Amino acid sequence: MQDAENPADAGTSAAAPGPLDAAELHRLDAHWRAANYLAVGQIYLMANPLLTAPLRPEHIKPRLLGHWGTSPGLNLVHTHLNRVIKARELDALCVWGPGHGGPAVVANSWLDGTYAETYPDVSRDGEGMARLFRQFSFPGGVPSHVAPETPGSIHEGGELGYSLTHAYGAAFDNPELFVACVVGDGEAETGPLAASWHATKFLDPVHDGAVLPLLHLNGYKIANPTVLARIPQDELDALLRGYGHDPIHVTGDDPAAVHQALAAAMDSALDRIAAIQRRARTEGVTERPRWPMIVLRTPKGWTGPHEVDGQPVEGTWRAHQVPLPGVRENAQHLRQLEDWLRSYRPDELFDDEGRPTPEVLACVPEGSRRLGASPHANGGLLLRDLPVPPLERYAVEVTKRGSELHEPTRVLGGLLEAVMEATAERRDFRVVGPDETASNRLEALYDATGKAWQAETLGTDEHLARDGRVMEVLSEHLCQGWLEGYLLTGRHGLFSSYEAFAHIVDSMVNQHIKWLRTARRLPWRRPIASLNYLLTSHVWRQDHNGFSHQDPGFVDHILNKSPEVVRVYLPPDANTLLSVADHALRSRDYVNVIVAGKQPGFDWLTLDEARTHCARGAGAWEWAGTEDGSREPDVVLACAGDVPTQETLAAADLLRRHLPELAVRVVNVVDMARLLPSGEHPHGMPDPEYDALFTRGKPVVFAYHGYPWLIHRLCYRRAGHENLHVRGYKEEGTTTTPFDMVVRNDLDRYRLVMDVIDRVPGLGVRAVALRQAMADVRTRHHAWIREHGTDLPEVADWTWAG
Prior knowledge:
Shape: elongated
Number of strands: 22
Number of helices: 26
């Protein structure tokens, strides 16, 4: 390794063999040195950006934040991507996986001019360089990682593990797009990234673009060595080849040699990619290819301080963040920093006005081919409206409420099939899920497309297709990442999952919500299609799979997040599901969570009624209650979710028959955010509207699909909260009958009637016999299911008689 005070000049060192002539090698090295200089400057400097005066403590930021260790490697890759993009006229995108690589990617965006185009006050000159340096990891500035603020980015670098799945999501249905993806060796230890290597089994060389992974082995995480950097090369090759890749190795610490080797590796990889696509697209070859990848080994913190305070830094974990931490207080550190910065010879890289020299910019592509300007990284620029057909074609007819049964998700499947068919030529809609499309009753999709699959097929397989746009893999992380990458590059999609296992992507959806929240505040970021979840096979009908499959808490997780982004819908029947799905598929910049059953459920609302009810988000079902409008109801029966709605209506039916004098209002909630005050969520109800619907002083018995405390949290500031009693899932489950699930959790119709009797003043004394009868039915239920294995006939055969 060279000392930071005298780095090797790749353009004049002994010529290393490779595809670059001396002039091009010198130009590439100049660009790389300029990017490194800018990365260091962002971490340290708040003044004197061009070192026109000796460096003084007041030029240094008071808090030094950022990550140097990965930056020289990212700068190297960016420089060489510029070269091949320009030479081959590629439409390209790069996903930067290593954590907190912001200084490098921002530096390159500033060099190629897209940063100044996006933020005119950060101009590509000395004055703009000063702003660039000061804003980095500074109050009111930009984050230390690759974030929505960074032109050319689609990947939030603050959490590791998702870069490669995002890259493949971007490549799907983008046949002319080349997606490079830098995978950090720390990130490569995560479960999602380990699964992502399998994405080659789903990439269609005909209809999809190409992904070139670059595994950057700089050897260290924040404080420890990395696994893949410490295993023998033959073992690493066996691992990567076992995943289906063909690794090309680039190793070294001499800039000239590494430049030549990386240029040769990129040329070789792109030639192989072009050959794979040509064979598939023009020669009809269907054999799954072995896609190339690059394994890049360079020192962590390359070209930075070799030693600090007698401790080795370059090439060690100490280079991870800020190699010289005490620059303001320590004169020796300050001298080392100045020597480090001057070692890049900025006077050769920037003119007197601070503008990059023509030599530095010689490798930079033009226009939208620049990585910072790729329209694929601002997907809203490419987004087209989704052709959703009229819902009337798929709606169920409701001639008598609560008498006919339909499987809501099967009804939705017809609509999704039509959307898939309508996008057959434009290929901008996909449905992802972990091996459950048919289980979730969405198999109508297979009439329009198959399941994406490039691996071996057998005669017993069904619906597999090389060009399929349904994607199933038993990794929720891959499903989530593929869809995020697909949406961020300007397409549409839906994630269908069992409700209980949506939690697997809790952290991933966190990052996407944060991305959307930030992007909405950036006027240059165009809105993208919403991330839509269909959670089915839900808690109340997991009686067959048992306790392990029973968890409705994803909704709680989502409703904790940014209110301008998140939406949660619990449609009670097939037509409301159609209405909600129509809205979600057309929406922009949201995360929509729809919880709906796949088992046969009653039809309650016509399509027109469903549209009106869903637009309102919450409302009284006058036909279900017994109030006459002359006075406030005695009690409000509220519900959210399909099974709670059925139990609430069954309870209302019992009250109508046994206590006809009781004025009952039935309220159904579809949009959970309606329960929040209007000041806390865009969909929230103003207090007068909430009071009119739920009353200010009457008892409210609320049957809720999930954990009951969520309703209390949403409504705790409302008038009459002390009168709110919520029933929901309370971690009581097993393999049992459907009705026993609600009984175990005190959500059943008989318990709801008992709750009304207990909470309406004076009713307990008058209705003591009815209360006892309700308790007796529950007792009889327990004995019946243990003897017969089925639910009570009056439950199994119940229909709405109102």
